[in-house]
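Course exercise 7: structure representation. Students receive a sequence record and must write out the corresponding structure in token form. The form below is the worked example handed out in class, using Molecular chaperone (175 residues). Read each field label carefully; the graders check that inputs and outputs are placed in the correct fields and that the protein name is recorded exactly as given.

STUDENT ID: A-19
EXERCISE PROTEIN: Molecular chaperone
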Amino acid sequence: MAKKSFFEKLTGASWTSEDSSEEKKIKTTKKIKKSKAPQKEFLKKETLDEKKEPEVKKEEEWLSESEGQLTIDVYQTPNEVVIKSTIAGVKPEDIDITMTNDMITIKGKRKKDEEVKEEDYYYQECYWGPFSRSVILPVDVEVDSAEASMKNSILTIKLPKIEKVKTKKIKIKSE
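STUDENT ANSWER:
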């Protein structure tokens, strides 16, 4: 007997090269009908898991206290790697950018300018608090020549690429 494929194990269907397409359909249907009982058990397990909802809420509360993650665009020009990110409501002096030849980390904190009671919000979609983002760069860059600027709440970081060493063949002259 041949080894069952992943699909055959998953559905319970059995396929053989000798079967005609009609026979394959019949075998598959019979196998699937027999496998309905485990599906019912799966649904019962799912119903039991729904009762554990308070634990999930505790995890969500814990996650909301962690750092936010910046959205970024990273692209390249012939000479540099450019990173852009919208960072509204944060002063340039409150942003910390650290980097190595192959990785950059942007950190900061967006502070609320006023305290509003939770029950007074209609919508609360803005993120307030610490944020960070680390990116592994696709190419090595010159750390000392990097530039960062902020215009209209868009942070732009320009990282000059390190020129790759080109191999040059040297001809030997005879004297």
